[in-house]
Amino acid sequence: MKKRNSLVQGIIYLALFVVLIILVKTVDVAAIGPENTEIGLSHINQTVHEVFGINMFWYKLTEVFGILALLVVAIFAVMGLVQLIKRKSIAKVDREILCLGGVYAVTLVTYALFEKVVINYRPIIEEGAEHVEASFPSSHTMLIVTVFATLTFVIGEYVKADKLQGLIRIVSLVIVCLTIVGRLVCGVHWFTDILGGCLISLCFINLFDHFLRKAD
C-alpha cells in the first residue's frame, strides 16, 4: 500500500507541476518583467514580488544552503564510488545510495532541461548578468528541498546514534522550510517559480520513496 501511495502521490505532484506550467504560459500573461519579459498569473506574481521586494540576506542564506546540498550530494557520491571499488559490482552498492544517485541525476536533468526550455524569466536582472535569466522552476528550491528531504529517509542507515539522527532530520527540515521562504522573499524568483520548485521536488521525493521501498 505504501509503495503504491508514494508512486501515485509522485504522479499527482508531477501532474500539478504540468498544470502550473500551462497556467503560467496561458493565464493572465503580461509583460511585467525586465526587458518586457512576460509572465503568466501576472497579478499574483507581481503582487507577491512587490510585497517582499529584494532581500539579499535571504538570497545569500539560500545560496549557502545550495552549497550544503551539493556537499551532501558529493558525500554520497564518494561513498558510492568507494563501495563500488571495494565491492566490484554496482549491484552491491547500498540501495539507498543507488536511489539517491537516481534522484540526484533526475534533478540535474530537470535543471538542464528548464535552462533550455524557458517557461519564464526572473523578475530582476541579477548583478553580473547581461540579460534576464530563466527562472522556472526555482532550481535552488528544487535542489535543496529534494536533497535534504531525501536525506531524512536514509540517514538512519549511516548514523546510528538516535540523537544525532534526530538532529540531522530536524536541521534538514529547517533548511527545507527556510529555503522555500528565503527564495520567495529574496525577490529573485516569481511566486510561481517557487511553487513549481516545490511541486517537482515533491514528485521526486515520493518517487524516491517508492523505489527505495521497492528495493527492500
UniProtKB/TrEMBL annotation:
Transmembrane portions of the chain: 12-32, 64-85, 97-114, 134-155, 167-184, 190-208
Location of the Phosphatidic acid phosphatase type 2/haloperoxidase domain: 100-209
Key word Membrane present: yes
Keyword entries, A-Z: Membrane, Transmembrane, Transmembrane helix
Name of the protein: PAP2 family protein
Organism this protein belongs to: Butyrivibrio hungatei
